[in-house]
Amino acid sequence: MTSATPLFGPLRGLRVDLSSGSFTEEELPSEVRRAVLGGRGLGAWLALRERLHEVEPLAPGNRLILAPGPLTGTGAPASARYSVTARSPLTGTVFDGNSGGSWGVAFRRLGHDYLVVGGACDAPAYLLVSATGVELRPARDLWGLDVPATLDRLRELHPGCQAGVIGPAGERGVAFASIVNNRGRSLGRGGLGAVMGAKRLKAIVVARDGERRPPVADPERLAFVVYEAEKLLKANPITSQALPEFGTSVLVNVLNQAGALPTRNFRDSRFEGARAISGEALRDGYVERRSACRGCSIGCARRTTAGGEHGEGPEYESLWALGADCGVADLTAVVQANYACNRAGLDTITMGATIACAMELTEEGLLPGGPRFGDAAAVLRLAEATGAGEGLGAELAEGSARLAARYGRPELSMSVKGLELPAYDPRGMKAQGLAFATSNRGGCHLRANMLGPEILGVPKMVDRFATLGKAGLLINIQNLNAVLDSLSVCKFTAFAMKEDYYARLLSAVWGEPVEPQELLCAGERIWTLERLFNLAAGFTRADDTLPRRLLEEPVREGPAAGHVVDLPPMLDEYYVSRGWTAEGVPSAVKLARLGLDEGGALVEAAGGLADASPAGTPPARPATGGGAAEERPSP
Amino acid sequence: MSHAVLEQFRRIGRDLFVAGLVSSHGGNMSVRQGDRILITRRGSMLAQLEERDVIETALDENDANVTLVSTEIVVHRAIYQATSALAIVHTHPPYAIAQSLAKDEIVPVDSEGSYLLHKVPVVTAQLTAGSKEVAELLPAWLKEYDLVMLRGHGPFAIGHLLEEAYQLTSVLEMTCRVLTIAEGMGVELKEYRKGSERYDSW
Question: pTM for this structure?
Answer without folding.
Answer: 0.93
